[in-house]
Amino acid sequence: MKLKGGESRKLQHKDVTAVVWQDKCVVLLLSTNSDPRIDGSVTRKTGKGNEEIEIACPQSVINYTKHMGGVDVSDQKREYYGVGRSSKKWWKFILHFVLNVCLVNCFILYDLTNHPPSTAHGNRHVTFRQNLVHQLIDTFTSRKRTGRKRGLPIGTAFPNLFHTLQKI
Q: Cβ distance 1 to 9 under 8 Å?
């Protein structure tokens, strides 16, 4: 589809709107939260000095650029302390992705509800994850215990099977 700068085409089916808008390059969006009949405007520099012009822009593009920082921050927090490793197996990738997203969402909720104090270098996220790991592991150890199992001594558990001391 050949469009000039600022032109857009929209197609709607039920609640989903597909938008094609020509800025410096073609922008494609699927949206469920904006009315396709409403257009806004954005300012762009023309390249000839400092001259600015206003071009038409669909409301869904304006909403996206206004709120896109939340996704970027979430991705950034997810990459800082990622769980798992890259894998060619699709199910491992999805498992690690979902686990990382859950951990970031838990941290955000914890941060909003508890207002934890600042740590030395502002590393509340890593402190949260360390505390979570300590709570999950708690007293688990992978070492096998050596020696006799603790329990009732055999003589007291079954007194009739063994010799006992008798006072004479």
A: yes
